[in-house]
Each structure stands twice: as C-alpha cells, then as structure tokens.
Amino acid sequence: MATEHTLSIIKPDATRRNLTGRINAKFEAAGLRIVAQKRLRLTQAQAEAFYAVHRERPFFGGLVSFMTSGPVVAQVLEGEDAVAKNREIMGATDPKKADAGTIRAEFAKDIEANSVHGSDAADTAAQEISFFFAGIEITG
Length: 140
Ligand code: IDP
Ligand code: MG
Description:
Blueprint: E1 3-10, H1 12-16, H2 20-29, E2 33-40, H3 44-50, H4 60-67, E3 72-80, H5 82-90, H6 103-107, E4 116-118, H7 122-132
Antiparallel strand pairs: 1-3, 1-4, 2-3
C-alpha cells in the first residue's frame, strides 16, 4: 500500500469546544502524520466552493452557514492508505451511526456539526488539498 495524503478539516463545532488537540492526538495515535496545518475562517464563497458537490442537497445552505460560523483547522494528513484510514478514524457522517472510539462518536454534536471533514477518495483528496495549501506548505 502506498503513502497517501488526504485533506482533513476540524470543523467549527470542534474548534469552538477547544478540541483541536484531542482530535489531532487521534490522527497521530493511528499513525497519520500532520504534514500541513492552518487555522482560518472560511468565507461564504469559499465554503460554497469547497462543498459545491453538495449544492443541490437540502442541507447545503445549513452546511455553508455552519462551516462559516467559526474558525476551522485545515490539515494535510500523510500515511499508508491515508484516505481510507482517516475515514475510519472519523467514523460515519451521522455520529449516532459512528463506531465507538471514532472522532465523530466521541465529539460530534449531530449529523451536520460532526467535528471533522475528510476526503473520500484519492482524486478528491488531491483537489481538496490544493484548495487550501500550496505545495511549498506541505513538509513530509
Ligand atoms: P462526510 O463528511 O462523511 O463525507 P458528506 O455526505 O460528504 O459526509 O456530507 C458533507 C457534510 O455535510 C457532512 O459532513 C455534514 O457536515 C453535512 N451533512 C451531510 N448529510 C447531512 C444531513 O442529512 N443533514 C445535515 N447536514 C448533513
Ligand atoms: Mg464527503
């Protein structure tokens, strides 16, 4: 299995509750390395662009207003099979369905305010990483 990169976002519900360190500890304990990281506040246009794939979904407006409601921490995670491994560490979108020990089971408030984003495939990971980071900002 190859070393991969994936894009993670610690969402506003988690930054608000000061959970950045506890979430990062889960990535590191599972063997993922945080190779780039920055805290920022998304504008409405940026959040709409990032989640453009969901623009026809009924939850799109709520998702954009949630994602702009406070700071996020965008990060690049590196490791063996990082895209799938991060999805495992995150748990299911709906925290009620997330396995015990996952970030969403432990920290998420509900299906919208679910604490973390993670890319869902290698191609979307590459696109999402370049949305937030220049190559020069990523150090292995
Ligand atoms: P994922 O984050 O697990 O990949 P997606 O289906 O890609 O889940 O949805 C993107 C984000 O949109 C979710 O993480 C969550 O914040 C929000 N979302 C997804 N489904 C719903 C819903 O049914 N109601 C409200 N928000 C939702
Ligand atoms: Mg998704």
